[in-house]
Amino acid sequence: MPGNKYIFKDFDMNKLSAIELAKLLNGREIRNEITKQEEAQAKESGLVVVFGASDDLMEFRGAVCEEVDAYEGQTVYLTSTGLIENKCEDDCPYYENEKNSGISIEQIWDKGGYSWIYETTIPHRQFEIMDGDEKYCRGIVFALSDVGEQTEPEPAREFSDVKRVCEALAYFGHSYPDSQEEQAARYDQLVDQLALAVLEKKHSETPLGDEPDLMSIMVDGTNCTWGEKKQFCEMEAFSYFSNDAPITQNPYFKNTWPWQWFNNEYLRLVGYAS
C-alpha cells in the first residue's frame, strides 16, 4: 500500500518463508502432509519440515530429507549442514562428541492432545496435521541456517497479550481456540496467523491512494495539518491499546487514511509490525 511503512518480521516477498510454509501445511491430512513440489520449494528456500508418521517415524523434508526411527519418541541432533548421524552401533563415543556441536530436536509421543509434537531451541514455526477430525501431529518448519541460533526461553505471557491477539484475529474474521490455556500455548502460532491475515487484508483492500501530504492543511474547518491528524490518530490508538480496548473499536470511517493510521499504530504497539 503506498505510503505504508510497516512490514512484518520474517516476511520475504522473494522466497518462501517459514511462516508461509507452515500456513500452507497447516490442516493437512496424515499421509498427505507435503507434496513433492512443496518439498522442492522448501529445499530451495533452505527450509526444513519435520513431522511424524505412523507411531515410530520422524520425517524430515526440504533442505534435510531423512526418515528416523522414533518408536515412543526420539531425540536427534543437527548442525547447519544437516543431521548428525550415529555411524557406529549403540553407545558411540564419536557420536556423543559430535552431538555436542549440534542442536537437538525432541520428538515426543502422546502429549497435549497430539500423537507427536516437537521441542527444540531452534527458531521455528508450527503447523497441525490432522487424522480426520482428530489432531495427529504438531509439526515444525525452520530455516536450516538458523540451526545454532538457539532462542532464549520465552517469558510467561500476560493474558492481556493473548487476549489482544485473539481480538485482532476476530477483527480479521479468523477463529482461535476457546480456552485460555490453549490460546496461551499457541501464542506464537496465533501471532503468525494474525500477521498473515493483516498482509492478506492489505493486498485485498480497496487502495486508499497515495498518503496525504502530511504538511498540508486539512480541509475540515481547522488549521491542523494531515501530519498532526496522523499523530492524533496514533495517540488515540495508544489510548485504546493502553485501556485494553480492542482494535475493532477503531473510531474512524473504514478505508480512510485516519482509519489506516489507527490500525497501523495499534498493530505496531501489539508487536506485529516493525
Topology:
Elements lengths: L17 H8 L2 E2 L6 H9 L2 E7 L3 E6 L3 E4 L4 E6 L2 E2 L9 H7 L3 E9 L2 E7 L4 E7 L2 E10 L15 H13 L8 H6 L1 H18 L21 H17 L14 H14 L4
Describe the protein.
The chain is α+β, with helices and mostly antiparallel strands. It has two domains: 129 residues, no CATH class; 112 residues, no CATH class. 34% of the residues lie in helices and 22% in strands. A six-stranded mixed β-sheet has the order 1-9-10-2-3-4. A four-stranded antiparallel β-sheet has the order 6-5-7-8, with no helix packed on it. Strand 5 and strand 6 form a beta hairpin. Helix 4 packs parallel to helix 6 and helix 7 crosses helix 8. The longest helix is centred in the last third of the chain and has 18 residues.
Brief synopsis:
With 274 residues, this protein is α+β, with helices and mostly antiparallel strands. The protein has helices at 18-25, 36-44, 93-99, 159-171, 180-185, 187-204, 226-242, 257-270; strands spanning 28-29, 47-53, 57-62, 66-69, 74-79, 82-83, 103-111, 114-120, 125-131, 134-143.
Radius of gyration: 22 Å
**Beta strands, count:** 10
Largest sheet: 6 strands, mixed
Could you report the average pLDDT, rounded to the nearest whole number?
80
Cα-to-Cα separation, first versus last residue:
16 Å
Q: Which residue ranges are poorly predicted, with pLDDT under 50 across at least 5 consecutive positions? A: 1-14
Q: How do the strands of the widest beta sheet line up side by side?
A: 1-9-10-2-3-4
Q: What form results from the Cα inertia axes?
A: elongated
